[in-house]
DNA sequence: CTTTCATATGAATATATTATCATATGTTCA
DNA sequence: TGAACATATGATAATATATTCATATGAAAG
């Protein structure tokens, strides 16, 4: 059994800390927050999201990809369009906590 | 009573969305996460934090300032040193939610 | 009152991130 | 099969961010 030599704070390894930071980066951009928050309503396709948040299709697609890579949203094809929806229960909680903080 | 014309998703105004994103930016950097997580233990001065997270004093001070501006930490002077501590109950919850997500 | 220890800060550089533009891919339907 | 529609993607340029270095501020102790 190898000894862990990585840098560590309490029970959090360097590697996990970087992952955590990367996760929170997903919430750290207003376009992405808008998308996530928009999906609180349920499944939507790209065009709908673009209209809701008033951003162009390319920017939205790029951010959807980032959110999907982070496993915060999932997608499925339906005919010509792709439907996106939240893929993690923590998303709502995290955003709710954030809201509570700024509302104080 | 003026009509609100700002961009809005459900009950979240553009302004609040930007604030939310700014808040999450604080968690979106590994140095800042390390500092916050380090402060889970309680009050610490700058030198202690630097040692714990293995970062130089200047970088830590810059980030402490950002965290303080975001009202996530507070400080008080004690003799020559300045003691920092968490200033928001949501910090632990937000980080905990993040941890749960990445551990899945 | 000047030296030492602790922290903060400004400027500069290096790096990361985002939106935009142009274009590619993939689906449906005539 | 080729328009028309929906989405994705690569490259680029603009902007934001973090770290470092040098130095400033501020407290305490001799």
How would you describe this protein?
- Two copies of one chain form a homodimer.
- In chain A, the strands form two sheets. A three-stranded antiparallel β-sheet of chain A has the order 3-5-4. In chain A, strands 1-2 form a two-stranded antiparallel ribbon.
- Chain A is built from five helices and five strands, in the order E-E-H-H-E-H-H-E-E-H.
- With 104 residues, the first copy, chain A, is of the alpha+beta class.
- Chains A and B meet through helix 1, helix 2 and helix 5 of A and helix 1, helix 2 and helix 5 of B.
How does the SSE layout of this entry go?
The structure is a homodimer of 104-residue chains.
Chain A: E1 8-9, E2 12-13, H1 14-25, H2 30-38, E3 44-45, H3 46-53, H4 57-69, E4 73-78, E5 81-86, H5 89-102
Antiparallel strand pairs in A: 1-2, 3-5, 4-5
The structure holds a DNA duplex (30 and 30 nucleotides).
Low-confidence stretches of chain A: 1-6
Strand content of chain A: 15-25%
Structural class assignment of chain A: alpha+beta
Mean pLDDT of chain A: 90
Sheet bearing the most strands of chain A, described? 3 strands, antiparallel
**What is the ordering of alpha helices and beta strands of chain A?**
EEHHEHHEEH
Per the principal axes of the C-alpha atoms, what is the gross shape of chain A?
A: globular
Distance between the termini of chain A: 48 Å
How many helices of chain A? The count is 5
Largest interface: A-B, 39 and 41 residues
Rg estimate of chain A, integer Å:
17 Å
Adjacency order of strands in the biggest sheet of chain A: 3-5-4
- Helical percent range of chain A? 40-55%
């Amino acid at each position: 059994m190898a000894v862990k030599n990585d840098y560590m704070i309490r029970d959090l390894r360097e590697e996990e800390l970087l992952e955590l930071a990367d996760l929170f980066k997903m919430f750290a951009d207003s376009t992405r927050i808008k998308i996530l928050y928009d999906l609180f309503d349920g499944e939507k396709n790209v065009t709908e999201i673009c209209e809701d948040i008033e951003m162009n299709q390319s920017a939205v697609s790029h951010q959807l990809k980032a959110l999907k890579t982070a496993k915060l949203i999932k997608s499925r094809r339906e005919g010509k369009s792709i439907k996106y929806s939240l893929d993690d229960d923590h998303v709502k909680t995290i955003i709710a906590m954030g809201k509570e903080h700024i509302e104080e």
